[in-house]
Amino acid sequence: MKCSKCGGLAVINLRQHRLRLCAEHFVEWFARFTQRTIETYKMFAPEDKVLVAVSGGKDSLALWDVLLALGYQAEGMYIGLGIDEGIDYSHKSLDFCRRFVAEHHPDAVLHVVDVESEYGQGIPTLARTTQRGRGKPCAVCGLVKRHIMNRVARDGGFAAIATGHNLDDEVAVLMQNTLHWQTGYLARQAPVLAERDGLARKVKPFARIYEREAAAYALVRGIDYIYDECPFAKGSTTNFYKELLNQLELNSTGAKQQFYLDFLRAREAGKVAFEEAGPVELHPCQRCGQPTTAAGLCAFCRLWE
Ligand code: AMP
Ligand code: FES
Ligand code: ZN
Ligand code: ZN
């Protein structure tokens, strides 16, 4: 297989883009494609400070790497969730983040927030002991991560929070929301969520990058990452939809990309109008000051009551 640019040995075949690229040209293409996504969706500008949420996985470390390579002021943030489950999951993921900094970007800043030592309990305990958790770690985990990301972004004066969500993640959620006709979620699913009332802007610069492309980038750049996924995500519905979509892509090259882009375009052009649940009013939480729809304490602060 030959590189479409230089005729050298190609390491990846990007079928949906009709491109075969060698390692060097793939890295170049990957950075340019990410840059174009950032510009197309007006995610942030070169003078902005960006907070990259890193989990120790391939997507978020690849994202941090490429943003630094592109010259952005990107600082990392790792949230220690206190998940062990027999594989020491949280500690290991933090090690991968630290190693990434040491080996690839020794001058980069990594913010670490450990939920257990800062608030007293990790995610598994919180899920077991709180009403909201009802034994389901992922729901509390999402709430805790959102709260902490927003706090760090606000305190540090960051223009945006960037996550490593890739096209496969986005399309799996899109399919789920479409099958259940979740119009409120469909109205808000986008590569950029605007800043509002004390909630920081959230961006997904890999929204158009296939998962296998992010994995290939990490491999070519020599980025070591945690292979295990969160033990609580095993058998999740999102993973089920990802498998279905992989089968679809196998039979129809570019199907995932097309589904996502057609959805974004149709909504943009007003061909489909999804209702957002009325304009909800936000006010500061009485304890932490973060915006909430609740009258007194926000959902995060209520967790610790
Ligand atoms: P996931 O929900 O695990 O697929 O993660 C989606 C994105 O959320 C990742 O690409 C990261 O940007 C971010 N993220 C997940 N876990 C953490 C964590 N423990 N600390 C910081 N960011 C995280
Ligand atoms: Fe939050 Fe798995 S990463 S429960
Ligand atoms: Zn080449
Ligand atoms: Zn609060």
Describe, in short, the structure shown.
The protein is α/β, with parallel strands linked by helices. It has one domain (27-278): HUPs (Rossmann fold), CATH 3.40.50.
Describe the structure.
The protein has helices at 23-40, 58-69, 89-104, 115-119, 123-129, 137-155, 167-179, 183-188, 211-220, 237-251, 255-268, 299-303, and strands at residues 12-14, 19-21, 49-53, 73-80, 110-114, 160-162, 192-193, 201-203, 283-284, 291-292. The radius of gyration is 20 Å and the shape is globular. The chain contains twelve helices and ten strands. The protein has a single domain (27-278), classed as Rossmann fold (3-Layer(aba) Sandwich), CATH 3.40.50. The protein has 305 residues and is of the alpha/beta class. The model has no long low-confidence stretch (mean pLDDT 95). Strand 9 and strand 10 form a beta hairpin. It binds adenosine monophosphate (AMP), FE2/S2 (inorganic) cluster and zinc ion (ZN) (2 copies). FE2/S2 (inorganic) cluster binds next to helix 6.
